[in-house]
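Ticket #4471: structure output looks truncated?

Reporter: J.K.
Steps to reproduce: submitted the chain below (347 residues) through the standard prediction queue, then opened the result file.
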Amino acid sequence: MINNRFTDVLRHLPPATLGIISICVFFYTIQVTMMWDLQLFTMCPRLVLFTNEYYRIFTSVFFHANFMHIGMNMLSTSTISSALEKRIGTIRLIFSIWWSIILTSTVYVTIAYTAYIIFGYDTWMYQHSLGFSGIIFHLCVLENYLQPGTRSIFGFFSVPSFVYPWVLLLVLQLIMPNLSFLGHLAGIITGTLEYYGVLDGLYLGDSFLIGLELLPIMRGLVSLDSFVAASQSRGSVRQLRAESSLSHSIHKISSIVFNFFRDVLETIVVCICGRNNRFNSNIFRFWERRHPNNSNSNNNDINIECGIIRPVEFYEDGSDEEGFGQNSATPEIIVSQEREPIFSRIV
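Returned output as attached by the reporter:
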């Protein structure tokens, strides 16, 4: 009965998630059977930088210290990775994990080396770490950002989903101090960078992925029942980011902050130059432009758009430097333009 349930669970796992679990289990079986020295495969920044052992970037991800270590990591992978794969697609998740392996290790080494150069802290440089947990934290960030709500921390308390990885990082470090804090932190950083679009240039578009899935060599993978095609997924992380309520909230907050500072700057300019001062008008004169549809119209029909209003007496001189007559700007136009913020043309 247990075997049947286990087989049923494996059968329903999406192929990318199942493939990652299979690779990690394979390497763990080999290392136990052959009794390999794990320090040959760990992540150690000093050995990567000064002895050029770059293979550790990949081997440190797929090797694990013991049975409990790989068991916990694979259970987490089956939950987090499969949920994410069903949303973004199988091939896209494979590329995401590939870049996560490279970038997480890069961030790990960079932080360790920076701490050594600036603060003289060399513990991270000599530290050996291994396991898939850094990649799990990367995927956890994406999954929690794309699933708004709350997450429970071991049933003791709940936190908003977007801070869950950070709280989990601290709680795990308090409970099990021997865990790789830097490896988990690197995963959170790379996951956050991917979600906010910093890594968008590294990922492939839907059209390319769909074309890739149509290749004959991909036929065996695509034919699996659990395969999630790019055309069937809900979109890339970039597209799902636009649907996230958190993303809308951040955009709204940033818009409020921008408008606040814009209004403050406008107030400062008006206080210094005066709203109807000629000097004020000359500063922002480059914003003035005539409506394109009225370029051939009579002077009386020309509508002037400008970011700041010139004084009324300016239009009473007979003509301005643009050659418009005194009727170029009617009182109604001046009143309507005075209601417009000075810097609205910059936006």
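Triage note (M.O.): checked the attachment and the full token line is present. The beta strands are 150-153, 157-160, 289-290, 304-305.
Status: closed, working as intended.
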